Amino acid sequence: MPTKSTTVTQFRCEKCNAPYPLGADDVIATCPYCGYTFVVGGSEIKHLIIQNKLNPKSVKTAVTKWLALASSKSVGGGVIKDITLEEPTLRWIPIFRVTGQFESYHFGVKKEGSGDNARHIRIEDRDSGEFTEWVIARRHAATFGIDEFIRTLDDRKIKNFEIAHTEGAPVLNSEIDDRDAAKRAHTTRMDRERVELLEKMDKLLDHRLNLNPDTSTYTHAPYWLVRFTYQKGTFRVAVSGATGEILLGELPVTKRYRLKKWFTSIFLLIGSGLLFQVLPYMLLVLFQGSSDSGDIWAIPLIIIAVAGLFWVASIIVLGGALRYEVEVDTEGKERGDRFSITEAIKKVGGK
Ligand SMILES: [Zn+2]
Fold first, then answer.
1. 95 and 242 share one domain
2. Overall domain count for the chain
3. If you average pLDDT over residues 152-174, what whole number do you get?
4. 6 Cα: distance to centroid of ligand 1 (angstroms)
5. Does some domain include residue 177?
6. Burial class (CB in 10 A: 0-12, 13-18, 19+), 178
7. In this structure, is residue 1 part of a structural domain?
8. For residues 95 and 240, what is the distance between their CA atoms, to the nearest angstrom?
9. Distance of CA 30 from the midpoint of ligand 1 (Å)
10. Ligand 1: centre distance to CA 240 (Å)
11. CA of 220 to the centre of ligand 1 (A)
12. Which of 6-10, 50-54, 143-147 has the highest mean pLDDT?
């Protein structure tokens, strides 16, 4: 959690009389001693807890296994022997489970083919039914891997909250109320739908979502964080106590990884240079062979475009070599690796 500039007041539990601090942004609070949970300035609320599957030992085992897999896929497995894991820490993250009815509508176009053969296909659909949306109940939600955490939650292992279930780990308070939760459920679902729709079409012209929430259940979920050191740096791995899964991790950028990026970049640069060099010869050939076909003029233009693409991609890939760490997901894939060749070319080529 980032340090907040909000003031903290001392508070006394209405139920067990124990004193504890309350954050100025806290909207729903839980007594760390007896578990009494209430709306600040209001009354008690019943709430749920998602069971924690892990303990410090099993977290370490899972992280060690993941580090081996993830590093071999990106920065090289050699880093493992120089990694020292710190003690894992557990925290209970406040969330709202919002359910209800939804109605959605979208309309857009997908382009098929190119040039004169291009066709615009109309894509339109409406949908309705029941929804369940998990919403983080913190305003300053910069917790590492929190999006992945929320996305992987389900309610199979859920029970009534008791302080004994929290294993003495910090229980974070909610900074939003259930009305805010419903609003957030809408934003979260809208954003996710938008990303999914844009994968299916080129232009999204209309997108509407109507949510009618009927329940909003306050819940705490187990989130583990493990720090590890490699050489002089510290890195993080987030693990879900709800599923036992690795959510997101950082890996140190090694010399080997850097070298790989350097070489890829140089290779692209040389490719670009070679293409630019053949261009004059290509033009000469085109002038001499007085072909009537107009299409042949597309060839030098394509060469210029590809050469330019390689040139820009080489710079983007080079950017990857200058980083300090990479973010890697459950399967050991680099998350949104904007420095990879495919991502670079996609970005420059406009999808
Ligand atoms: Zn209490």
1. yes
2. 2
3. 92
4. 23
5. yes
6. buried
7. no
8. 14
9. 8
10. 27
11. 17
12. 50-54
In a domain, 39, yes or no: no
Distances (CA, A) of 312 to 261, 266, 280, 349: 14, 12, 21, 10
Domain presence at residue 89 = yes
Does 112 share its domain with 186? yes
Give the Å distances, CA to CA, from 18 to 21, 31, 33, 45, 336.
10, 8, 7, 19, 46
Query: Where is the domain boundary, 252, 283, 302?
Result: 252
Write down which residue in 209, 236, 252 finishes a domain. Answer: 252
**pLDDT tens sequence across 10-46:** 889 999 999 999 988 899 999 999 999 999 989 999 8
For residue 265, what are the domain limits?
255-322
Question: What residues does 206 pair with on adjacent strands?
Answer: 107
Same domain, 224 and 287: no
The CA distance from 118 to 109, in Å, is 12
Residues with CB under 5 A from ligand 1 (ion): 13, 15-16, 31, 33-34, 36
Instruction: Please tell me the distance between residue 32's alpha carbon and the centre of ligand 1 in angstroms.
Output: 7
